[in-house]
Amino acid sequence: MKLIFAAALLACLVSPVAPGQKANKNNDGEFKSLIERYFAAWSSLNPDNAAPMYAKDADLVFYDIAPLKYTGWTEYEKGVRNVLGGFASLKLTPNSDLKVTRRGNVAWTTVTFHLSAKQKSGGQMEMDGRHTAIWEKRGSKWLIVHEHFSAPLQG
Questions:
Q1: pLDDT, tens only, 29-43
Q2: Residue 25 exposed, middle or buried by CB count within 10 Å (0-12, 13-18, 19+)
Q3: pTM to 2 decimals?
């Protein structure tokens, strides 16, 4: 009995997960896949491909590099469609620094990425950026309810 108690105590002391919380290692794989699908969808230059990943509540806020803010998916989709219309090609590549934090049916992800684009006007664009998303599990799907894009200042 002492051996079982000692083993249980040792397991509690070395466990990185607080009592009552589940480790999110399995979720990391799930969100890695979501992030890869997310960046591939936007790389297609068609917001319709990304739309299924977003909640459609009218009051949700999405921050972008330009313009500053969209409220609701309808405004976001319309604005981004206009921006993407200026590109001949776009490649968004997430880096390997994805961090996933989950609390119940809410999760947030952070990742840096590289953007490579060819503009219809002939110019080339290369930049690195940051992406933070808040996801909510609705039914069996994780949906983005808020996101924030940013890029470091040049110079």
A1: 999 999 999 999 999
A2: exposed
A3: 0.81
